[in-house]
């Protein structure tokens, strides 16, 4: 008598349509690392790390799909295009599934597997999709789930391990009346595909024992299985899968497309016809040093997905590859960014919470300008690893410096890396007496054009780099006696007085007065600085010369910057206290702050390591916006850095899963009113947002009247722009018509009249 087991059945789908953010956001994702490939609708679909691109086989056009369009931004593990239902199905490592409907316009998020509490989080990975008779068999790390592609809902889930346990299923395939399932830990099992009781594990027969089966595929009348070690076996009835041949390289993908079986290794791609007859192979690709990750065959062409070169299309009978790759940065894990009008520099170094740069991050850098990306490989930047800070010269945007927490200071001039300064060609010292270990971090410019940087494990750890590139060191041992042997110096910012402030991860915030050489420090504890934590990760001055301090355990503000070096002055920093449901709470309590930026309106953008981004009013009392991966295109709640274009107001977010930008409205103030404009203008029916009036001077008075002179709005600009909600002082929407914008500078010496058309 068969024993009954409790079977999980995902009958009712939990799903919803994703929001499209294209009107307010832009994605800058890297597509160089290809995880999976599918084909249909005369397109090749390519799953990169956390975004999709398609290649139109007729027009050769490339289109991208990312979190800005509604994808989750999670790590993609499998994709599949169904020609029968015109659906693109995307599976993720965390168990989420996105289904793209109606020509990329609607994205259905299916969270049944992701949210299922009976499945451990580490066993929800989507490994493979296989369509049969309208059902999509989803191979996962816990078993097989069946999804109805017509009704867009789940059916049963099969736990087919011994005694009905959860086991990893790498692939499924159907041949004749049999369904096969390969496992990386539980052999290969088969069952009658039309058996209505497949939820019973005893209906599945163990065909071959042993672990590490990469996949199983039906080709013609044959069924083939691939082991991780490269051995191919063929199904021979009662004998099970019998070894057929071995591949000498690591096999990374194994799949049937049409009447060909594609075997992809780290260095080659091959196609086999029925009977396992070799039809085409490519082993060396001139011009590309490839590491293969995915493969697909269509119309006598190999589509080879690589680790760093995107998708390569290689016709049968040749080894000449066409690279298919959307424009984007070199990597999807930006750590530091900086922006000047019209350009952005991105670095991909990394340190841990203790500022340890090892193991080293050996990646290049990326530069965006005039709508396109230029990427520099690791070798092109003099093998400068662990770049942690980017600083564009505010007086000359063609000069850029980047600090490395292992290899010194990288110099870029006219968009080209030209030199790296370290212990071999400057007076910078190395921790390693036999090599180069120069741990720089913080970087900021003073009003005289000097670049100030911090160096860890160095007695003279505060360094001034003059415009003539002289390195002038300052001893900090009066404040940090053991500076040469322990701790790390981090972020650095300079006040309007020219005071230099930097973080010391074991001792708080250190201040230095260059004019007197005086040092002071604030730390944790009331009376000694009142910091939330000594491990400081972010520093920023606002327009009122207040120093905002972010640590791994919260936020503080130092109001008395001018008195920082005065004896007996109160230099305790203060938390921001807000009311939540009438109860006083500390803003960002215990959150790890990663960066703080101030926009043209003196509002604060604050990023965190776990909770996304907060946009705060100038005093921090009001949260104007809050972005997380659940309500925005942020691909991760771990946001490493922020940069703001002062003239467009665009805010860039560097997350651990990619770079995105929000079309902010707070711009830097202008010197005059010559370039005042508004958008949208005209305001058309159905528009529900704010009209931005931009190009203003600081503290300009803005009045809006109707054509008869009735005042409907008035505000003073904080930066270079103001927002109008098209309401008359918040009481009602104004009617259709022409509205006059009357602008007066703070000193009343300049005026401007601008017109806005409202169409209801």
Largest β sheet strand count, sense and barrel closure: 5 strands, antiparallel
**Helical/strand content category:** mainly beta
**Beginning-to-end CA distance, first to last residue:** 74 Å
Mean pLDDT figure: 94
- The tally of helices reads 1
Please describe what this structure looks like:
With 760 residues, this protein is mostly beta strands. Among the domains are: 578-668; 677-758, Outer membrane usher protein (Immunoglobulin-like, Sandwich). The protein has a five-stranded antiparallel sheet. A four-stranded antiparallel sheet has the order 2-58-57-56, with no helix packed on it. The chain has a four-stranded antiparallel sheet with strand order 3-4-5-6, with no helix packed on it. A hairpin with a 3-residue loop joins strand 12 and strand 13 (144-148). Mean pLDDT is 94; it is low at 1-13.
Descriptors:
760 residues, mainly beta, Immunoglobulin-like, 5-stranded antiparallel β-sheet, 4-stranded antiparallel β-sheet, 65 strands, globular
In short:
By secondary structure, the chain is an all-beta fold. Mean pLDDT is 94; it is low at 1-13.
SSE blueprint:
Blueprint: E1 15-17, E2 25-28, E3 36-40, E4 43-47, E5 52-56, E6 62-65, E7 76-82, E8 87-92, E9 97-101, E10 106-110, H1 112-115, E11 126-132, E12 135-140, E13 144-148, E14 153-158, E15 171-175, E16 178-182, E17 188-192, E18 205-208, E19 213-219, E20 222-227, E21 231-235, E22 241-246, E23 251-257, E24 260-265, E25 269-273, E26 277-282, E27 292-298, E28 301-306, E29 311-315, E30 322-324, E31 336-340, E32 343-347, E33 365-369, E34 372-376, E35 387-392, E36 399-404, E37 408-413, E38 416-421, E39 440-445, E40 451-455, E41 462-465, E42 471-474, E43 489-494, E44 500-504, E45 508-513, E46 518-522, E47 536-541, E48 547-551, E49 554-558, E50 577-580, E51 583-586, E52 593-598, E53 604-608, E54 613-616, E55 623-627, E56 639-644, E57 650-655, E58 658-663, E59 677-679, E60 691-694, E61 701-706, E62 711-716, E63 721-724, E64 737-744, E65 751-758
Antiparallel strand pairs: 1-10, 2-58, 3-4, 4-5, 5-6, 7-8, 8-9, 9-10, 11-12, 12-13, 13-14, 15-16, 16-17, 17-18, 19-20, 20-21, 21-22, 23-24, 24-25, 25-26, 27-28, 28-29, 29-30, 31-32, 32-33, 33-34, 35-36, 36-37, 37-38, 39-40, 40-41, 41-42, 43-44, 44-45, 45-46, 47-48, 48-49, 50-51, 52-53, 53-54, ...
